[in-house]
Design a protein that fits this description.
With 410 residues, the chain is α/β, with parallel strands linked by helices. It is 43% helix and 13% strand. It folds into two domains: 141 residues, Alpha-Beta Complex (Aspartate Aminotransferase, domain 1); 225 residues, 3-Layer(aba) Sandwich (Aspartate Aminotransferase, domain 2), CATH 3.40.640. Strand 5, helix 8 and strand 6 form a beta-alpha-beta unit. It is globular and about 60 Å long.
Length: 410
């Protein structure tokens, strides 16, 4: 029987598997692991959202199949959010669609618009689905260095000139996962100008739109004049309202891209459970002070992390947005690489982080630290790290490759 499945074969080994295995083994031994690995929000969903879910769930009619595009009330709530937050006007019937989380929406759009051999420009480092969603769909991925927004802008021209065929689409993600970098509207203006010149679709991931720590909230690419001609933007309620397990996201923007995503989804799902959609609409339409409160918790955790780790001997730059810190591997561990450092930290300091190499070859030399533990636990992690750094590493590098490059898909 044939088992060499085409799409599975194209996926590289899961880079976080080794760290996750060690973490599971440590917990099985009863060890207390302070887990900064996954960006899995730990705060409770606000009560008024949960109450609306319960209320809607008591209606027997809400237990039937829903709508894959999203119920009308939810799409209208998305439109109202974009008008309120960004000053952008959207058509709820043509320019907005609900998704089972932004990750599902992104992956299904890749399936909808991609033919085998199409080229897609993806930043590196990047959230894995940005590349692998298209890789699963059969595209060829051209990784563009993105250690800074300026570098990404400067390199997409070279990548486009050396792509055969010309790129179908390009991905942007700010505030960035994993680097936590932010951009202003001028960045998006340059992206739209470039994409229109080269006839490239733009896919913007704005999942962290409302988790920011400065005075200026991150902009939307759809604020740029003419952006809706070529751009689609994905958002999520997971972080904004601390609703990760609810799997509720949405996309907004270009009518043709929204229509393509809707067509694919109509074959694949009936939408999220209707009471979840009703509760999501209540979240978007309800008191936004809860978003301020969630943001304030992340900001406080960020400040504690940066200060306590600095006292422990690990200098971590203070992120301007997102729920992550992008932390350079301490100098004396740099030769080990991010994977071995992450394993060392887990074994000897009982602290779990995500190795930067898991986000692409240009993520090497860093680890991602998720702000998903409370301040007491963050301080405890810093104490553990201080002891670990003082003793030095007792763990020899394994036979795993230290700098595995992510080659363009074939």
């Amino acid at each position: 029987m044939h088992t060499d499945f085409y799409r599975i074969k194209r996926l590289p080994p899961y880079i976080f598997e080794e760290v996750n295995r060690l973490k599971a083994q440590a917990r099985a031994r009863g060890e207390d692991i302070i887990d900064f690995g996954m960006g899995n929000p730990d705060m409770a969903t606000p009560d008024f959202i949960v109450d609306k879910l319960c209320e809607a769930a008591r209606d027997p009619r809400a237990h039937r199949y829903s709508a894959s595009r999203g119920i009308k009330g939810l799409r209208k709530a998305h439109v109202a959010y974009y008008k309120r937050r960004f000053g952008v006007t959207l058509d709820p019937d043509k320019e907005v669609i609900a998704a089972l989380g932004s990750k599902e929406g992104f992956a299904n759009l890749a399936m909808a618009i991609t033919a085998p051999g199409d080229v897609v420009l993806v930043p590196n480092p990047a959230y894995p689905i940005h590349a692998f969603g298209f890789m699963i769909a059969g595209a060829a991925i051209r990784h563009v260095p993105a250690t800074s927004p300026e570098e990404y802008l400067s390199k997409i021209g070279v990548a486009t000139r050396h792509s055969v065929p010309s790129p179908l689409a390009m991905v942007v993600n700010y505030p960035s996962n994993p680097t936590a970098q932010v951009v202003g509207l001028d960045f998006y203006k340059e992206v739209i100008k470039f994409a229109k010149k080269h006839e490239i679709w733009v896919l913007s991931d704005l999942a962290y739109a409302d988790i920011y720590f400065g005075d200026e909230p991150p902009p939307s690419i759809l604020e740029v004049d003419g952006a809706k001609d070529i751009a689609i933007e994905f958002q999520s309620l997971s972080k904004t309202f601390s609703m990760p397990g609810w799997r509720m996201g949405f996309a907004a923007g270009n009518e043709k891209l929204i229509g393509a995503l809707a067509r694919i989804k109509s074959y694949l799902d009936y939408g999220a459970f209707t009471p979840i959609q009703v509760a999501a609409a209540a979240a978007l339409n309800g008191p936004q002070s809860v978003v301020d409160e969630i943001r304030a918790v992340y900001k406080s955790r960020r400040d504690v992390l940066v200060k306590s780790m600095a006292s422990a001997g690990w200098e971590i730059p203070s992120p301007q947005a997102s729920m992550f810190a992008w932390a350079p591997v301490p100098e004396k561990y740099r030769t080990l690489g991010s994977m071995e450092f992450a394993k060392d930290l887990l074994i000897h300091a009982k602290v779990a982080v995500s190795p930067g190499i898991g986000f692409g070859e240009y993520g090497e030399g860093y680890v991602r630290v998720a702000l998903v533990e409370n301040e007491h636990r963050i301080r405890q992690a810093a104490r553990n790290v201080k002891k670990f750094l003082a003793k030095g590493s007792n763990m020899a590098p394994t036979d795993l490759p230290q700098k595995k490059k992510l080659a363009p898909a074939k």
